[in-house]
Amino acid sequence: MKGDAKVIEALNEILTGELTAINQYFLHARMCKNWGYDRLADKIWKESIDEMKHAQILTDRILFLEGIPNLQRLFKLNIGETVVEQLKSDLGLEMEAIPRLKAAIKLCESVHDHGTRDLLEKILVSEEEHTDWLETQLSLVNDLGKEHYLAQNMKTE
To answer: Does 5-152 carry CATH code 3.40.50.1360?
Structure first.
């Protein structure tokens, strides 16, 4: 099914954000694991996998619309050197993704592409949930202090 060129372009832009998030979250998860924050590493790893699922959905939709998915492009990775920097950096990615998704949803509505709109709305909900989780973690760091927060996120056993 031939899709709207602007919708395909918007999907590729969102795909770029998802691919960037996969890489950034993957590295942050591995760093947390290396530092002994296994509980936190597991959660961040799962977020990386969720972003990979989003990338798969977007890639499949672009192909369905007879477009070419651009898997070569990434936005700048912002790798945190501490857990708090990582949380802030990941929150920044989500805060960039949400308006991008909302704009694409509006575009899809304007060209009556309800299938793509529905897919993007599901991704948007996931990104909003991750944003809420990140904001909660930063609030916990503030309320508990960094040391107590990190102690809670050590071993999963």
So the answer is: no
Residue located via tokens 């945190």: 80
Contact between 78 and 92 under an 8 Å Cβ cutoff? The reply is yes
Can you give the residue ranges of every domain in the chain? Answer: 5-152
For 149, how many CA atoms within 13 A lie in the half-sphere containing its CB?
16
- Quote the CA–CA distance of 17 and 73 in Å, as a whole number: 9
* Residue of 42, 39, 36, 48 lying closest to 77 (CA atoms): 48
pLDDT (tens digit per residue) in 31-84: 999 999 999 999 999 999 999 999 999 999 999 999 999 999 999 999 999 999
